[in-house]
Write a structure and sequence with these properties.
Length: 108
């Protein structure tokens, strides 16, 4: 990773979620990430579920949908089995980024 927050501070978390977005398994990373990530995955399933397809990737930092704060970006990938029309599980990771495009470096 290029990000110092991710590479050196290890400010990231990874987890697996079931087809309903419920947490199945997680690596022992940042508790505040893992506690809110399920809400993020479930929010995206609720809003995008029927339209999700193989190869889709969702990026979210929505503060009202399980986002802990704006610099924590969550990447969610649905996983499909063969010709299934809906995802059988979801892979998600959340990482803290120092600069997400504010007017000055490090701002929001």
């Amino acid at each position: 990773a290029i990000s110092t927050n991710i590479k050196e501070r290890l400010d990231f978390s990874c987890a697996l979620f079931g087809p309903d977005g419920g947490l199945v398994s997680n690596a022992p990373h940042i508790p505040v990430h893992l506690g809110a990530m399920q809400e993020t995955v479930q929010f995206q399933i609720q809003h995008l579920g029927p339209d999700l397809r193989q190869g889709d990737v969702i990026l979210s930092n929505h503060p009202c949908a399980g986002g802990s704060h704006l610099p924590d970006l969550t990447v969610i990938t649905p996983v499909f089995w063969e010709e299934e029309s809906s995802a059988i599980f979801f892979v998600a990771s959340r990482g803290h980024h120092a600069d997400i495009g504010g007017i000055t470096p490090g701002s929001m």
